[in-house]
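Might you be able to review the protein record set out just below?
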Amino acid sequence: MRILIAAAGSRGDVAPYTGLGAGLREAGHDVTLATTDAFAPLVREAGLGFTSLPSRPQAQGGVESRRELMRTAAAFVTELGQGFADAVDPGTDLLLLSTTTAPLGQHVAEAMGTPTIGVYLQPTAPTGDFPPTVMGTRSLGRPGNRIAGRFALRMADRVYAEAVTELRRRLDLPPMTPAETRRRQERENWPVLHGFSTALVARPSDWRAGLDVVGTWWPYVAPDRRLPGEVEDFLAAGARPVFVGFGSMAGGQGERLRGIAVRALRRAGLRGIVQAGSARLAVDGDDVLTIGDVPHALLFPRLAAVVHHAGAGTAAAALRAGTPSIPVPVTADQPFWAGRLAATGAATDPIPFASLTAERLADALGQTVRRQAYARAASVAARHMATEDGVGAVLKALG
């Protein structure tokens, strides 16, 4: 079967699909991943075909209001939709669509007569169990959570409205709004497989048929991949260190984070591995090592704790490693995942990024390392995650 996976966003929005794609390829399918050019090396390393999608433009300093952000997002998805139409080969047998690409891919699939399955990294369907992931962690009560969930979908519809209009016009399809498309999907119980662990989010009992939680899709790591020699040397030189990293978040915050990390590690009496990331965080010292990108699957099991931005992928990777977390959510769905992680008992209460200080971080680090309850909870969750087979669930859905 010729399968096209379509994903757009940050590294955390794309990398899990390299593991999913590699698993489908190993099962005998011909798999291509359509995403932005920045992630072409990740895709090719996994042995997958690559097709380019338009990139999100870099945000300008003046774009700050919610209205301006929505306008910028709408312009991007309009361009993404046109790029999507160019990316799909007529010989494609199946489209696997991410949260970001599904509102566009459905129309391309309709025009080409190609079946689709949703492969989401976040829960988006309204539920009484929790509020929408973009609205933090505070429950509004079951009716309130459902109302908020429907409101969040309407806001997403507004972002995609122009893109869908332009795309359907190009594809010679009759007009249809994003809301009408969504209602049709719900009537037809369009299948959506959610690639996160039930250790973090159990399937809500009030979801419709066709919505399932199948387990995490892990970023592809080559079987012969090893940690860099300098990382191995640092790990061997003393007690287990703490990881501090914010992935693609916290751009321009390097100096602030450097000072916080140094003071917190010294105050807690811990060694540290600091990942540069988008913040360009760099720390020098005998007890601190600065690194670039390394596979979380190789590094996290060898750490005492992980300080991170609580992106879905990083939160899951820490839990899979059985390593306690100190979540420092920055934006978007990160407060949601930070709260879910803390609810497992494997993480401290989240520290909002804007409130992060060396003192708060040092206290959280000391608490995490001293109290074995965090490590025990992380180990329990890791064993649970090991029983899940996210790729196998997708293969089963293919029939």
Notes: The chain is about 45% helix and 15% strand. The two ends are 11 Å apart (CA to CA). The CA atoms of residues 262 and 283 lie 7 Å apart. The chain has two domains: 2-188, 229-386.
